[in-house]
Each structure stands twice: as structure tokens, then as C-alpha cells.
Amino acid sequence: MSAPKEAGEVPLLGHSRALLRLSEVFALSGGALFIAMVGLSIVSIVGRKLWSAPVNGDIELLQMGTGIAAAAFFPYCTMKNEHLRVEFFTEGLSPRLRAGLDALANVMLAAAMALLAWRSAVQAHELHEAGEVTVMRNIAVWIPVACLVPSLALTAICSLDRAVDCLTSRSAAS
Q1: DSSP the chain
Q2: What's residue 10's pLDDT?
Q3: Per residue in 116-166, pLDDT tens?
Q4: What are phi and psi of 147, to 5 degrees?
Q5: What is the pTM of this model?
Q6: Pick the residue with more confidence: 83 or 158?
Q7: 77: Cα within 13 Å, side-chain hemisphere
Q8: What residue ranges are annotated as transmembrane (predicted)?
């Protein structure tokens, strides 16, 4: 096990460290994609204002890119336990009960993400079969939808890992 990096952070086991590393790669990729989208936006705005030559289909590209980039952060947020929580109602509960509630929340997140991953994969397949493309750039719509699936699936796996961790590490400490 590795040493905790912050107060209250639970040490990660080998498979959890591997999931954390993979989620870091996803988050860094999402960050790089966001930076590329900012660059695209700047080029399009400057081109539009100075030379009346915006990037054709910039909004389509920004919509697809930012969706994919945002989804890439989900696994990392899950592994770091940094999703939005309201602890006002649970602060007076015992550590064991809080760990149980955290585990339940992670299982529910895993179920939701697994459902989203499955339905996104089905939608990508159906869009591929239909041959749907974007209006301005003629980009196959199934491609960005399919790019969401790995992030959603990894988030589901990370959530299950966090649920197991809540039930074993934290409850054992109480």
C-alpha cells in the first residue's frame, strides 16, 4: 500500500493505484482536449473578427470536443472522491454508517455510469448504421458518441472500486 497523500485519504491497493493512474491519463487527455478546444475557439474568433474567416463548423467541433473532454474527468474525480457531496446531513453519523452511505452512493454511481456507457455504445452503433453526419463538417456523429464510452465505463469501474474501498478500509478503521 502507498502512503496517504492528504489528511483523511485512504491508501490505495495495487489495483486501485492502477485505476488511479489510468484515470489520470484520461484526465490529462481531457485537459489536453479542452486546451485544443480553447485554441480552436480563439482561432475561429480571431479569424472571424480580423479576416471574416472563422473556422467552418467550429461550434460542432467545440460541442463534440468539450463533451468528450468533460467525460474524461469523471474517472479521476471518482478515484479522488471529489464528486459534489452534501455532508451536512451525515456529519453526525458514525464513521461506519458514513462509509456504508458512501459505498451505496458509489454503487449507484457505478450503475448510472454503466447504464450510460451501455446506452452510449448502443446509440453510437445505431448512428453508425444510420450514417448520420454533422451539418457543417460532415463528421460522423457516432464517433464522438463512441468516444464517451471508455470514460463512462472506466468511471463505473472506479466507482465499484471506491465502494469496495469504503466498505473495507474506512469501516475497518472505525
Answers
A1: -PPPSSTTPPPPPHHHHHHHHHHHHHHHHHHHHHHHHHHHHHHHHHHHHHHS-PPTTHHHHHHHHHHHHHHHHHHHHHHTT-S----TTTTTS-HHHHHHHHHHHHHHHHHHHHHHHHHHHHHHHHHHHHT-B-TTT--BTHHHHHHHHHHHHHHHHHHHHHHHHIIIIIHHH-
A2: 52
A3: 999 999 999 999 999 999 999 999 999 999 999 999 999 999 999 999 998
A4: -70, -20
A5: 0.86
A6: 158
A7: 16
A8: 25-47, 59-78, 99-119, 139-160
**Is 74 a residue whose pLDDT tops 70?**
yes
Q: Contact at 8 Å (CB) between 158 and 75?
A: yes
Percent with pLDDT over 70 in the chain: 90
Mean per-residue pLDDT, 19-26: 96
Residue 24 burial (C-beta neighbours within 10 Å; 0-12, 13-18, 19+): middle
**Interatomic CA distance for residues 91 and 80, integer angstroms:** 19
Q: Is 25 exposed, middle or buried, given 0-12, 13-18 or 19+ CB atoms closer than 10 A?
A: middle
